[in-house]
Amino acid sequence: GGNAAQGMKYKWLLSEVFDRFKKTGVDDRKLWARIKKLIGLTCAMLVGKTPEAPAGFELFGFDVLLDSNMKPWLIEVNNSPALGLDTDVDKIVKIPLLKDAFTLVTEHTRTCVAGDIAGSSAAHQAGDKQRRSPSPSLQGTS
Question: With a threshold of 0.90, does the pTM exceed it?
Fold first, then answer.
């Protein structure tokens, strides 16, 4: 692990990288589409292979290398990416990333809890209705 001064030399915002590529004639939209496809295909391979954690979530970090032809190559997938805030770039990128991740988890949890409550309420109401009406086998007997 390098120190923050080293990180300043090697960490760029993705927008800065793409701006630099545009100046050299690289089609940044096409490049970004290829990177997203690479990550999407990788994630598709992970379906069913990651442990299920109903009260949790996974955050993956993808290391991608671009060759001289601007072809993206997957180097590795980190299941525990570094989330330290050592540089200004870290703060610009990781704070919104974490806010977005927590928003997704919170919204998903609210949806699941609301569904569970609605399901429980419907089941409870059905049970109440069933308890209030006599069963067909008891009707007509007193």
Answer: no
